[in-house]
Design goal:
Elements: H1 2-54, H2 60-78, E1 81-85, E2 89-94, E3 97-108, H3 110-123, E4 128-139, E5 144-158
């Protein structure tokens, strides 16, 4: 009798653990499925963004914010200081295209500033660098010299009219 009772409880424990195992397998499968869905949605997002970039269709505020965020990230990496970021100058080229000129100033080393310019124009393709002006300045309180650079970035954008 004791033998039958011991076997019964051990089998019940095994069956309970097996149920927990199958439940955990099911939850893992759902997690993998949701991860795959998330990966697919991210790929779709990148694809649609690439189409917008390729056709140069941007919202003015979106590009303005994207440029500012990008500048801040690069300045942190390169140990630069973003001094000014002014409102863009907008010039209407024709009825469905505009040219925006963004002016900003940075302070730092020459190589870091040149790499910032290269990254903006060549790697990130954010626009065309129209003008770069370097100026060596001196802080008389600290008796240190530093390099300040004014950069003009131009971008041509297509205007979409909602009908």
């Amino acid at each position: 009798m004791l033998f039958i009772l011991a076997c019964k409880f051990s089998f019940l424990k095994t069956i309970e653990i097996k149920k927990q195992y199958h439940l955990l397998l099911e939850q893992t499968g759902q997690k993998i499925s949701s991860d795959n869905d998330l990966h697919y949605l991210r790929k779709q997002h990148k694809y649609y963004d690439s189409i917008l970039v390729k056709n140069q269709i941007f919202s003015k505020t979106t590009f303005h914010n994207k440029l500012l965020i990008t500048l801040n990230e690069i300045c942190k990496i390169k140990a630069l200081k973003l001094l000014k970021f002014e409102k863009p100058l907008v010039l209407e080229i024709n009825e469905n295209a505009i040219q925006e000129t963004y002016q900003f100033s940075v302070q730092g080393g020459y190589i870091d500033i040149v790499s910032l310019i290269f990254k903006l124009e060549q790697e990130l393709k954010m626009g065309k660098i129209a003008s770069v002006s370097f100026e060596k300045k001196k802080n008389f309180k600290q008796a240190k010299e530093f390099l300040e650079c004014k950069i003009y970035l131009q971008k041509t954008a297509t205007i979409l009219y909602s009908q």
